[in-house]
């Protein structure tokens, strides 16, 4: 017999007849469920305890995690601060590096320009040196040729001098012959005088006076002829020596010039080159050497033309670079000295006009 639970729900206060077996089954079922509930309660309690432990562990882990997160956040903040500081330093270093790079590039460019200028200057100096060496070699060759020619002329002069000595010796022989002849005539006159001793005293004195006069005249004539001949030879010899001196004046440099000890150098422009002069005077274009200050001083008078001044200035600048050397050779003076122009070098108004005349 089963229990009608629907009716019981309708009248829960009404008593219902139930078989003992059903109640026993319900009892067993209830006890079983109660036991099961107890088991579940225990499990729930155990689970609750586990949950509590887990919650405690979770809270501890949360706290540790929070601490770790706080610590990590602090470390992140520190790292961010360090990164920001490092970035600022990097920015500063980059700025400094950019400035240094810019400065380095400017320095490199400046050095390149300086090296280029120095290279050009060195090339110009090398060219000037080569030109100077070429001019020096040419001057040295000219000097050797002039020395050989001078030695040849000296030999010729020595031969002429030897011939002159022979002429003088011949004159001395002629003089001896004339003296011998004169002695013979004197002896002849003396004999004549001895012969005339027998004549009258007045005639004797007259004859002696006459013969003495003839003798004096003869001596004077012979002496005059001898002196004239000697003077002619000496004059001829002097003229030849003077001609050689004039011809080879300045061929061999003086000792002071060869040793580089000329105390004063004054030059004058002759339309082609500067020549040495004793002192600056008159009109023209001049160049003097200031040994103390190591300068070449160029000046001119107002009557010189602009074209002449420009031409002279080019020659003067060449001298200031390679130095000045006389036509006789020897040392070079003022090598590498600065050129100072002591006069106003302006272009005349006439040269700025069409159809101007350069030399007016």
How does this structure look, described?
There is one protein chain. The chain has 360 residues and is of the alpha+beta class. A hairpin with a 4-residue loop joins strand 1 (266-269) and strand 2. It starts with a helix and ends in a 19-residue tail after the last strand. The model is unreliable at 248-261 (pLDDT under 50). The chain has five helices and five strands, in the order H-H-H-H-E-E-E-E-H-E. Helix 2 (20-196) packs antiparallel against helix 3 (201-247). Among the domains are: 149-247; 260-352, Severin (3-Layer(aba) Sandwich). The longest helix has 177 residues, at 20-196. It has helices spanning 5-10, 20-196, 201-247, 255-259, 306-322, and strands at 266-269, 274-277, 285-290, 295-300, 338-341.
Brief overview:
By secondary structure, the protein is α+β, with helices and mostly antiparallel strands.
């Amino acid at each position: 017999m089963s229990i009608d639970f629907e009716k019981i729900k309708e009248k829960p206060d009404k008593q219902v007849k139930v078989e003992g077996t059903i109640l026993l089954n319900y009892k067993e079922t209830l006890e079983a469920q109660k036991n099961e509930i107890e088991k579940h309660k225990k499990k729930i309690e155990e689970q609750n305890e586990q949950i509590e432990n887990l919650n405690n562990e979770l809270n501890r882990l949360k706290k540790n995690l929070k601490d770790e997160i706080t610590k990590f956040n602090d470390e992140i903040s520190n790292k961010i601060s360090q990164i920001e500081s490092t970035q600022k330093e990097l920015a500063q270093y980059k700025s400094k590096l950019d400035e240094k790079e810019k400065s380095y590039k400017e320095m490199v460019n400046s050095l390149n320009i300086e090296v280029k200028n120095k290279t050009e200057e060195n090339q110009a100096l090398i060219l000037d040196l080569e030109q100077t060496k070429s001019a020096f070699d040419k001057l040295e060759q000219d000097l050797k040729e002039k020395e050989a020619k001078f030695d040849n002329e000296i030999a010729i002069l020595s031969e002429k001098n030897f011939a002159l000595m022979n002429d003088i010796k011949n004159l001395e022989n002629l003089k001896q012959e004339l003296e011998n002849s004169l002695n013979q005539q004197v002896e002849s006159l003396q004999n004549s005088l001895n012969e005339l001793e027998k004549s009258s005293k007045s005639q004797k004195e007259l004859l002696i006076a006459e013969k003495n006069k003839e003798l004096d005249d003869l001596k004077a004539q012979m002496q005059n002829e001898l002196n004239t001949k000697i003077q002619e030879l000496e004059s001829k010899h002097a003229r030849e020596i003077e001609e050689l001196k004039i011809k080879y004046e300045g061929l061999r440099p003086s000792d002071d010039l060869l040793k580089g000890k000329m105390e004063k150098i004054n030059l004058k422009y002759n339309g082609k080159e500067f020549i040495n002069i004793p002192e600056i005077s008159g009109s023209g274009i001049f160049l003097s050497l200031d040994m103390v200050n190591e300068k070449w001083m160029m000046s001119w008078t107002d009557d010189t033309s602009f074209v002449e001044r420009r031409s002279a200035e080019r020659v003067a600048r060449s001298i200031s670079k390679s130095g000045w050397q006389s036509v006789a050779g020897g040392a070079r003076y003022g090598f590498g000295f600065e050129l100072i122009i002591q006069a106003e070098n302006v272009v005349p108004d006439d040269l700025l006009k069409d159809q101007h005349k350069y030399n007016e």
